[in-house]
Hints:
14 strands; 47% helix; globular; Nucleotidyltransferase, domain 5; 18 helices; three-stranded mixed β-sheet; alpha+beta; Alpha-Beta Plaits
Amino acid sequence: MFCHSYNFFAFPYVSPDTGHDPVFTCQGSALRFNAQHRMNFNTWISEGIPYMTREEESQLKSKGLSQEEVNQKVGLLRMWKLLCSSRLPFVVHCPLDLFFLLYAFERRPLPRYDPVALAILIRQCTPKVYDTAHLHGAIGRFRCLGLSKFYQDAKAQHEELRKTGRGDVVAIEFELQGDTAARYSIHPEAMAHEAGYDSLMTAQLFGYLRAMSPGRIREAANRLFLYRSIEYVDIERAALDGVAGSPIFDLSRVTLLVAALDPNDALANEAARCIAATGSEYKWMDASHILIVLRASGGAAIRKARDLAAQVHGVESWLPFEQWREIQALETQALRAKRDSQLRMHSEAARPDVFRPPPAMRAADNTDGADAGLASSGSASGGEQAGSTLRTSWGASSANHHSNGKTNGINGVDFLLENQRRHIWFLQLYSLGLSGVLAYLAVRSLRRA
């Protein structure tokens, strides 16, 4: 395989011509991370190639500009349109890169609440997307999901399979071309996190995975990884049925548990290592919860769960996955109700024509709302009451036995909702440049003469 990799500084087109003034939302840690990896922000802003969406290009054309003037302003949109018209597959490592490209070149905002529209938009740009992060779980037998370690692991496994002669594994050689060879042939690890180098790793990783598991690769087309989830985005299903999520596991054959780590137990830091030592498959759901996949169901799953609980320390409680997800949904609903209530209060405070009852009347009204709990979709007090109700109903049925505050059993739930961190997962698209827009199309398979 011959490899060409590219880097571009790209900055969104800024002009009143389109009526869109880009706004950046950045974490301070992200800026520092990029600066530590040689990102030149002055070059990015002052010399970055412009880009815009197809919709904005249409606005320019409606103003009577010549095609040459339009081409100069749209910048990298011209290259994006050529990539889409070539109908090449896209290869990404996690779908955020794909979503950013759609956001940068197609339209804003993305149809985040319309799976059919999102699927159609993706398929208009490429016939197939391969997500190496999804392949990590779909193929299995790999340890780390991070791009660099995943690449090294896949390369080592490919070499081992070739050496031992196990399976019908195709040999692969990568030949870097031109500037790509000059830049990445010597000490390539020093170039980590540069767009061109990361895209090169992604392309080569995909090459190794395809050589080892061609059947799994075919099955995984148009399936996108979801971080800390037991589902993936199925583009085909989204286009046909309007349902975006599909389960990773066959839930008739596996049992899913969630271990809630004890924040006051020093052994909690070793929980993941202990789970791995038992041979169980696991996945972090957030900073304090670990999903464990038990390859059993019914009584066999209960026995495995008890054995696991006896061997793993630093866990405050064990939850069936469905129950944990229900708690997450209830928490999210309560927080949304609180947010909506606050927005209504701010909106009413800004309107001089809205009648506001005196404080005594408002206090009397809020009493019923607090007692109603979550069913009222009320304010913060309703959310707290809902948490109390959950603790009562689930805690009362717990058959766990406690010693010094630690959970020894698996037969029930004694989960304090107030100890759980609140998580609302949502997609954030950060428009911090578009270097490496050819990001995951770096490998082109050719026949040698």
